[in-house]
User: Which sequence fits this backbone?
């Protein structure tokens, strides 16, 4: 343990209103602490300079998965285990379950939350590409009220996001009605379990008369933040899946990505694999 | 009552404690008044220490602070030589080199303090690669950066080139590998001028630590005591390094007058302690038209890091194994261990052989390819047989039949059919499948005159109740020492295993049986255990209390009578080197090892050419080991070793930056999980070795030699990629595949 | 030590017994179990939630106790390796580990057994793939996992009356 644990302050607000009130009184002073699977790793490594944490783990208003006619809403504290076990999510949003199943291990999945994952804003996060493919909307809440933005607009750069100092992630909304789309998810990591992704590719497409009538392409680990590739989506519209399309779409993809060399992998590998996964996705459509 | 226990899967002796969580590892132990210790280390790879500053906000007066000046004896960690300081004194030679020690009762305050010590340094130019070290860009050790060299000659290599039908060359490299025992290194120490030094901790070799502490403190041998606690994995990583951490804990205890516990966190353990030596091998091989080996010229270099530690011995084993189980009339081995400014590399299961065997087995597949014959055909033509001589001139006295082992491995793995099928089917689809194999040997025990030099000892005692207590310095670290020794003694005396006790390795109460390394525990020390047990029996017989033919229960009664009349019933045996084994240290030739295990391993892989990822789909491990003392334990050794070999081949990549391991986290240095290991099918053959207990030879390191080359050869078959380096990371493989298809 | 906010009182149930202790809120549950409650069966292997040697059950779910702050254990029902055997009788998984060689050095064993027990409580007859996946958060360096799989499979057979 490389941090001075006794210096950390901790409060457990009884409900959402109290939590938001605390954050409003001292914006930025208190950071939310959910399942801790990211923050405790930083604490252990001596890399958690922030000292005051608000324990939101038991706040009921942030929990659960709710289904309505037009959407499925995940509370920020929905764990990966809960996501994997939810019937409607498994049927209509299977990529989310795939992502959850490939995140960490059983133990991590029991404590890791979708809200925590989003707020941690790792460019290598596993669930966000699925959220992007599903046109997720993120609902933020503060003592001032709530607002919704497309999740695609939430991450603005490396570890920067459209989240005010007094705001919490409240819910993630997934519009229903896209189960007819062909869906694809593949995470390429350092090994087959408990792996940080080197490239993660999530995609969905609507095929009408053999042509691509709609497309969503999202990736992780190839840019400073998780990325929705609108240029490639546009490029694919109206076209017939083929090896030639895969090549040209891959060139388009290369223009959108900004992969890096790091201790896990190389920019060259990430780009090539991203292109190969795009090709593999297109193959499944043909 | 069945008293034949050798060959039976007797349950692990300390198994109950382990499955209930009652086994006590060093961090489970606390002593009253104990302080926690921490190490302040160098951030630079090479330089001079100008000053040490203690930052504000820490109550330094409450701390015990130890520097090199506090060392009562010699500032060194004694091993083969004394070049490695216990604490850096003015000079730094590698990142993470220990400079200063701190102790305090409050572990959190200690963490704060450790971050508040600032070492002011003057950098000196470092050397990080084998090439730069050999080129002497800087002299960072001794006069020429060379820890050790060997030159072995058999026949006349240079005469062969002209007559060769084909000459094949190649360069092969292996990276560093972290042992990654799941229990990090740790020690607890009590030390004072009045009472001497006692340490308890996670270690493989109590007497190595004992020798080092005697020197560090300048104390007589009987004032230093080393006790092994339950050890959560070692694999060589706890062979020599524990002497360092024991020294540190003891120095803090000495200065503070309190017990001190020093446990590494994972990041420190990975970055600061030893790893497998990186290697570079150059092969040049001459073959005849009909596929016979005419000459092998091997140049083998290992990177030892900043201090010598065990590099000469790692080099020795790597050298002796470099030419493999093949009959070649002309062999030259030129090998060396060089210094760089990385934390010193050290023992890791296999100990030089995994490096040289990888190069050899990859190379021979390439030689076969160049000849236009199948790799198994090439091996078949050249396998060594009883009566042939190995590269170091050792005449093979064992009834080895490598062809039989190879055919057995091929039958179990369906090698030939799969080889043909995959070659056909790989034209289609992005996932390519392949099979590959490695054929190899591993010598058990210390090389050459090593066992003679160790002169290992074991003693035994029988109590009045007839319980037999074995005193040996061999440590249990999961491989089954306690159980195996019990079986050997039980079988020798015709007693149930439950009547045998294995005394906790404690230098105050066990003799020096040598280190728990080199695949020697069953074969060498186990034999001494058998002799010690039999010596007890002989004393009872000579005293007239035991008849030669007797019922097992007569033993206890005889012990009671003996002890009542004569007092303690003890025996003590010392290793005697077989007279017919001769080794010449100067020429580096002769009988290198008393016995070898022989093996053929087959790997089946699938390679996804879209991502460069390799999956091991199936693995067959066939080996001839003399005698299997405990089938479950023996298979467990092979399975675990194969998994480590899978890591060595595919996953385990130490990322270096300026001599530091930057991926020193389990998240970023990846070992195989349960989802990454193939089904591993183990088969043993037994040709009893008459000097091993029950006929047993050593097996602990064997699986690390053949696993990685079998996988590399399978990848080559699957994809046509000419693998020259491990780990075969997807990044490198993907680029290689693009070049193959270009 | 500069001003420390101080410890809080945590009440929970551990292995069926009520437990109360004081801890800094962000102390690791792992450290609290080992130090305050002297339950040293749960081990530290990595401190980063990768190796699973610290696995315990918290409210029926497998968690890495090195990643759980003590404050969040308040009100929780915990089971550690010390609570797996019932009234001196080893659990089927523990017996199988003994019979089939599932433990070598033993340091990963407590966490591995918790993970296996947790799996069997949820899926009494898992497939080999399910076993592999359920244990993928528990790293073992000694066994290569082979005899761990055999042990878990054997424990299932025994539990359902066969074998």
Assistant:
């Amino acid at each position: 343990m490389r941090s001075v644990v006794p210096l950390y302050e901790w409060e457990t607000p009884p409900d959402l209103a109290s939590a938001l009130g605390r954050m409003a009184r001292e914006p930025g002073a208190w950071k939310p602490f959910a399942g801790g699977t990211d923050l405790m790793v930083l604490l252990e490594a001596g890399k958690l300079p922030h000292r005051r944490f608000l324990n939101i783990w038991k706040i009921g208003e942030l929990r659960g998965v709710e289904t309505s006619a037009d959407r499925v809403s995940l509370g920020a504290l929905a764990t990966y285990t809960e996501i994997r076990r939810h019937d409607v999510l498994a049927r209509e949003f299977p990529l989310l379950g795939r992502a959850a199943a490939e995140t960490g291990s059983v133990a991590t999945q029991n404590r890791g939350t979708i809200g925590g994952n989003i707020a941690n804003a790792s460019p290598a996060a596993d669930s966000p590409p699925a959220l992007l493919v599903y046109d997720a909307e993120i609902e933020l809440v503060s003592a001032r009220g709530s607002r919704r933005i497309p999740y695609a607009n939430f991450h603005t750069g490396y570890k920067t996001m459209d989240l005010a100092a007094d705001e919490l992630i409240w819910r993630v909304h997934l519009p229903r009605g896209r189960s007819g789309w062909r869906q694809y998810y593949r995470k390429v990591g350092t090994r087959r379990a408990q792996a940080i992704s080197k490239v993660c590719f999530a995609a969905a497409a609507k095929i009408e008369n053999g042509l691509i009538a709609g497309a969503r392409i999202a990736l992780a680990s190839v840019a400073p933040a998780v990325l929705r590739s609108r240029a490639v989506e546009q490029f694919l519209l109206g076209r017939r899946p083929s090896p030639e399309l895969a090549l040209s779409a891959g060139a388009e993809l290369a223009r959108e990505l900004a992969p890096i060399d790091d201790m896990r992998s190389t920019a060259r590998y990430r780009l090539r694999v991203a292109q190969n996964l795009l090709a593999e996705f297109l193959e499944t459509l043909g | 009552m069945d008293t034949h226990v050798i060959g039976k899967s007797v349950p692990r002796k300390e198994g109950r404690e382990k499955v209930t969580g009652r086994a006590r590892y060093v961090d489970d132990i606390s002593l009253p008044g104990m302080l926690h210790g921490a190490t302040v280390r160098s951030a630079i790879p090479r330089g001079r220490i100008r000053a040490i500053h203690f930052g504000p906000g820490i109550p330094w007066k409450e701390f015990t602070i130890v520097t090199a000046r506090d060392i009562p004896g010699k500032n060194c960690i004694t091993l083969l030589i004394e070049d490695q300081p216990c604490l850096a004194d003015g000079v730094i030679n590698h990142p993470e080199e220990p400079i200063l020690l701190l102790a305090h009762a409050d572990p959190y305050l200690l963490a704060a303090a450790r971050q508040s010590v600032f070492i002011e340094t003057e950098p000196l130019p470092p050397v990080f690669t084998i090439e730069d070290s050999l080129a002497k860009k800087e002299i960072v050790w001794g006069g020429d950066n060379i820890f050790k060299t060997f030159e072995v000659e058999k026949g006349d290599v240079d005469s062969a080139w002209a007559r060769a039908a084909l000459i094949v060359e190649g360069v092969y490299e292996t990276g560093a590998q972290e042992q990654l025992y799941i229990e990090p290194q740790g020690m607890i120490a009590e030390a004072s001028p009045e009472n001497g030094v006692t340490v308890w901790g996670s270690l493989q070799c109590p007497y190595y630590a004992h020798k080092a502490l005697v020197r560090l403190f300048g104390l007589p041998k009987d004032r230093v005591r080393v006790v092994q606690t339950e050890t959560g994995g070692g694999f060589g990583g706890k062979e020599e390094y524990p002497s360092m951490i024991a020294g540190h804990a003891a120095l803090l205890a000495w200065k503070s007058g309190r017990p001190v516990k020093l446990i590494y966190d994972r990041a420190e353990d990975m970055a600061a302690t030893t790893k497998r030596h990186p290697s570079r091998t150059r092969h040049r091989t001459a073959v005849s038209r009909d596929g016979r080996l005419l000459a092998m010229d091997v140049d083998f270099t290992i990177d030892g890091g900043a201090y010598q530690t065990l590099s000469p011995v790692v080099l020795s084993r790597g050298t002796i194994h470099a030419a493999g189980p093949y009959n070649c009339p002309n062999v030259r081995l030129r090998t060396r261990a060089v210094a760089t400014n990385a934390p010193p590399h050290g023992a890791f299961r296999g100990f030089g052989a995994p490096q040289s065997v990888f190069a050899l087995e990859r190379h021979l597949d390439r030689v076969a390819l160049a000849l236009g014959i199948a790799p198994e055909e090439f091996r078949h033509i050249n396998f060594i047989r009883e009566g042939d001589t190995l590269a170091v001139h050792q005449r093979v006295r064992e009834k080895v039949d490598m062809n039989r082992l190879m055919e057995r491995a091929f039958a179990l793995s369906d090698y030939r059919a799969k080889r043909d099928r995959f070659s056909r089917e790989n034209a289609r689809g992005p996932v390519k499948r392949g099979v590959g194999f490695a054929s190899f040997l591993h010598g058990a025990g210390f090389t050459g005159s090593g066992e003679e030099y160790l002169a290992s000892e074991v003693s035994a005692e029988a109590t009045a109740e007839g319980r037999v207590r074995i005193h040996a310095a061999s440590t249990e670290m999961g491989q089954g020492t306690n159980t195996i020794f019990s079986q050997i003694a039980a079988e020798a005396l015709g007693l149930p295993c439950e009547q045998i006790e294995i005394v906790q390795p404690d230098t105050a109460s066990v003799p020096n049986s040598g280190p728990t390394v080199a695949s020697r525990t069953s074969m060498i020390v186990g034999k001494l255990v058998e002799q010690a047990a039999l010596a007890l029996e002989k004393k009872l017989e000579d005293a007239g209390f035991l008849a030669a033919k007797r019922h097992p229960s007569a033993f206890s009664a005889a012990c009671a009578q003996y002890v009542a009349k004569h007092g303690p019933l003890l025996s003590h045996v010392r290793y005697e080197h077989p007279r017919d084994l001769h080794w010449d240290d100067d020429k580096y030739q002769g009988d290198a090892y008393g016995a070898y295990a022989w093996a053929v391993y087959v790997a089946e892989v699938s390679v996804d050419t879209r991502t460069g990822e390799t999956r091991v789909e199936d693995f067959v491990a066939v080996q001839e080991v003399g005698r299997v003392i405990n089938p479950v334990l023996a298979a467990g050794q092979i399975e675990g070793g194969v998994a480590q070999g899978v890591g060595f081949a595919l996953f385990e990549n130490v990322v270096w930056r300026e001599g530091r391991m930057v991926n020193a986290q389990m998240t970023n240095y990846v070992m195989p999980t349960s989802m990454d290991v193939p089904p591993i099918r183990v088969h043993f053959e037994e040709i009893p070795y008459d000097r091993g207990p029950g006929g047993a030879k050593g097996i602990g390191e064997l699986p690390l030699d053949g696993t990685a080359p079998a996988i590399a050869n399978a990848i080559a078959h699957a994809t046509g990629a000419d693998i020259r380096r491990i780990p075969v990371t997807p990044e490198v493989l993907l680029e290689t595949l693009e070049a193959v298809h270009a | 030590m500069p001003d420390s906010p101080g410890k809080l009182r945590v009440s929970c149930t551990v292995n069926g017994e009520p437990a109360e202790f004081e801890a800094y809120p962000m102390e690791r549950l792992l450290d609290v179990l080992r130090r305050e409650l002297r339950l040293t069966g749960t081990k530290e292997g990595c401190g980063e939630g990768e190796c699973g040697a610290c696995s315990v059950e918290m409210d029926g779910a497998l968690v890495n106790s090195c990643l759980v702050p003590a404050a969040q254990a308040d009100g929780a029902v915990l089971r550690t390796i010390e609570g797996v055997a019932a009234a001196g009788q080893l659990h089927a998984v523990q017996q199988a580990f003994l019979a089939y060689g599932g433990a070598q050095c033993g340091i990963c064993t407590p966490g591995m057994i918790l993970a296996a027990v947790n799996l069997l409580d949820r899926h009494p007859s898992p497939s080999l793939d399910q076993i592999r996946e359920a244990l993928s958060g528990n790293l073992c360096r000694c066994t290569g996992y082979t005899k761990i799989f055999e042990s878990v499979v054997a424990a299932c057979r025994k539990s359902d009356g066969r074998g």
Observations:
- The two ends of chain B are 70 Å apart (CA to CA).
- The interface with chain A takes residues 107-109, 111-112, 114-115, 265, 267, 430, 610-613, 615, 651, 655, 662-663, 665, 667-668, 670, 672-676, 730-731, 734-735, 738 of chain B (CB under 8 Å).
- The mean pLDDT of chain B is 97.
